[in-house]
Specification:
Layout: E1 2-6, H1 20-24, E2 26-30, E3 34-40, E4 46-54, E5 57-67, H2 73-101, H3 114-126, H4 132-148, H5 161-173, E6 176-178, E7 185-190, H6 193-212, H7 239-246, H8 253-265, H9 269-274, E8 280-283, E9 286-292, E10 299-304, H10 306-312, H11 329-342, H12 353-364, H13 369-376, H14 381-390, H15 393-400, H16 408-428
Antiparallel strand pairs: 1-2, 3-4, 4-5, 6-7, 8-9, 9-10
Helix pairs in contact: 3-4, 4-6, 5-6, 8-10, 8-12, 12-14, 13-14
């Protein structure tokens, strides 16, 4: 709130002291069109945003500036500089608001075509080394956006929170799964929960970028609830099943080697296929691979076992890929599934299940979850905790402690055998 004080003086420069309450110290309160406000975050920081009120409408602009808890002198200085920057932005917005009121052109490009902007974002991802699956998801979302919005010439000015909520409702209630040929709909098959989440996130990413590019002054996604992810089943092989698989013939030897290598290292298929001999280093008795993850772009240093190193084969030139003759994901997964069935394992296993197998195997062998997280290259420990949930030793121990209620005599025999075993262990000790 802006407070203006007026002090009245006479023509000779002297203050007129009469009528003190009416003339000497008048205050006039004027409401500011833009105010800096704060929103408390879960981590204790305060997010700064502008509360903009004009023509009876209120909009918000989040500045991506944050105040931190002041524990030190440096914290206070940092907050002072942050507030100084926030006030500078506020002053600029006030000038822009005034210019807009006098007919100057707005700096935002709200008349830009939404679908043209979205398609440009799709093409940008097509030209990067991102996975083909992510690029495909962007185009699948485009298909559903066109099913929801028939007007190909819709502008960003027409993309309101109500429009965004409408697209969410469409995904929730009306959208159906389609084949890769979008002319063929899978009859009456609604989208999976995680598909709805994925498509809605693509729209959110597009509008977030439009806000960053100053195409729109306010993000219409704010306040629209997202879908909650559905936890999927993570199929894996046990140590005994991996042994059995290794002893079973596979029609594609290098797919066999690459799959078992992934079981022993936890590497994704994309990272296995990108490995070159120049990434392999020998340090004493250890073999280490140094590489950058394709998905997270993180630099990784991974020591591997001698049996994993053996699966790589004879060393080649530094620029040569290690695992060659690996077909596309569809062919690879089909070969793995046939191999698994030949081994007598009745599980639906894909190449990516090798990574799950490594994670569960490490936890089963007693590795700490933090270590497993680092081996897998996870950024967040919560991602690794999913595997700890799969293999919960405490649950297994609790279930194993249930006495034999149906056949008590077998319980007594078991107890007798356990007692004998304990006595033998003491004698041997």
């Amino acid at each position: 709130m802006l407070i203006l004080r007026y002090h009245f003086v006479t023509q000779d420069g002297k203050s007129n002291k009469s009528n003190n309450f009416q003339r000497m110290s008048k205050e006039r309160i004027i409401k500011e069109p833009i105010r800096i406000r704060q929103k408390e975050l879960a981590n204790g920081n305060l997010s700064l945003y502008l509360d903009i009120y004009r023509d009876g409408k209120r909009v918000y602009e989040f500045l991506k500036l944050y105040l931190i808890p002041e524990k030190t002198k440096d914290d206070r200085e940092k907050n002072r500089q942050t507030m100084q920057l926030a006030n500078s932005i506020k002053a600029k917005r006030i000038v822009e608001l005034q210019n807009g009121a006098f007919g100057f052109k707005s700096e935002y490009q709200t008349d830009a075509l939404f679908f043209e902007y979205y398609k440009a974002m799709c093409e940008k991802r097509h030209g990067t080394p991102e996975s083909r699956g992510n690029w495909g998801n962007w185009y699948s979302c485009l298909h559903h956006l066109r099913k929801y919005e028939k007007n190909e010439r819709i502008t960003f000015a027409e993309i309101t929170p109500e429009w965004v909520q409408g697209f969410r409702d469409y995904l929730e209630n009306d959208a159906c799964a389609w084949t890769h040929d979008y002319r063929k709909k899978i009859k009456d098959k609604p989208l999976a929960r995680n598909s709805k989440l994925s498509y809605f996130n693509k729209l959110r990413a597009c509008l977030n970028q439009a806000f960053e590019d100053r195409v729109i002054p306010v993000n219409p996604c704010r306040g629209v609830e997202n879908f909650k992810p559905e936890e999927g089943t993570r199929m894996y092989l046990t140590i005994d099943e991996v042994r059995k698989l290794a002893q079973t013939e596979c029609d594609y030897p290098r797919i066999r080697d690459a799959f078992l290598f992934s079981c022993l290292t936890g590497l994704r298929r994309s990272d296995v296929l990108r490995l070159r001999w120049g990434d392999v280093h020998h340090q004493g008795d250890f073999t280490r691979i140094i590489f950058r993850q394709k998905k997270t772009k993180g630099q990784e240093y991974l020591d591997i076992t001698p049996q994993a190193a053996e699966l790589m084969g004879a060393e080649g030139n530094p620029d040569e890929t290690i695992f060659q003759d690996i077909h596309c994901p569809t062919v690879t997964n089909k070969a793995v599934q046939e191999w698994v069935l030949r081994a007598g394992i009745k599980k639906k296993i894909t190449f990516h299940c090798a990574r799950h197998t490594f994670a569960v195997m490490m936890l089963d062998l007693g590795a700490e979850i933090y270590t497993v997280s680092k081996l897998l290259g996870h950024r967040e420990l919560s991602t690794t905790q999913i595997y700890a949930k799969i293999l919960d030793k405490n649950k297994q121990k609790a279930v194993a402690s249930i006495p034999n209620i149906i056949n008590p005599e077998k319980e007594s025999e078991k107890s007798h055998e356990t007692a004998n075993q304990d006595a033998d262990d003491k004698l041997q000790g």
